[in-house]
Amino acid sequence: MENRLLDQFNNVITFQWLSKQIEEPYSPLIPRELFEIAYHTCNSVTMRNIYIKQSSSEEQGGSKAVLYSNDKKFIAIEGLENSLKITKYFSEGTTGDKVVTDIQPLLRKRKENYISKDAEMKIQILKSILVERKLDECANLVLLKGINRRIYFTIGDARESAAVVPIFMEAEGASLVQLALNKWMETAQRLEQEHTFPDNLVPGILKNLTQIKKWLLDLISSFLDK
């Protein structure tokens, strides 16, 4: 399965494009917590996740995600040993200022807010961001013409991950989200499992995933920002 964007990022963007970066120490959070909060803070409806790797341990660095936005900018989130690094890559004539002016202060504020949450709420926020990542993974698979079996299981992962999160399931609109995920699971299940997802269904599933993502981003932010 070809991923030209990721190849371009690894072989061209990181060497030739302009960039701005910030670093935020993990402490007093563990690396997985800050990585997830940063993923959500860098993410938006106009972005797609083209790469993610999770550290083998929640308490160690090593996680990495690469996001690509519609305005042709890339954001890399990297878990170092003692801090998290966020790098924005941009082409000549544009700017990466928002990583300093918008993302950095918002990340710090959300980190402070998260610290003050009780243990159960922390778990629910992280599980909701997991659903966010699963939706992103599914959208990327569709765009990369992934096989139906993988798309089916990714939607299933998102649905099942959401089903055990009270702040997700009790939110207004949650039943519609679950219905939409069920619909696409059933659609993918009826297709030839080892074939690529049909072109004629791509606009529909991407529209639904985008609507769900917007709803979920707003929901997670509402808990992180208070």
Brief summary of the model shown:
This protein has helices spanning 4-16, 31-42, 98-115, 119-143, 148-163, 166-169, 174-190, 202-224; strands at residues 18-25, 47-53, 64-69, 74-79, 83-90.
Could you characterize the architecture of this molecule?
With 226 residues, the chain is an alpha+beta fold. The chain has helices at residues 4-16, 31-42, 98-115, 119-143, 148-163, 166-169, 174-190, 202-224, and strands spanning 18-25, 47-53, 64-69, 74-79, 83-90. The protein has a 5-stranded antiparallel beta sheet with strand order 1-5-4-3-2, with helices on both faces. Strand 3 (64-69) and strand 4 (74-79) form a beta hairpin. It starts with a helix and ends with a helix. The mean pLDDT is 96.
Low-confidence stretches: none
Average residue pLDDT: 96
> Tell me about the biggest sheet?
5 strands, antiparallel
Helix residue percentage:
55-70%
Radius of gyration: 17 Å
Quaternary state reads single chain
Q: What's the total count of β strands?
A: 5
Which series of helices and strands comes N to C? HEHEEEEHHHHHH
Give the termini distance in whole angstroms.
41 Å
With helices defined by DSSP (H or I, 4 residues minimum), what is the helix count? 8
Q: Structural class, from secondary structure content?
A: alpha+beta
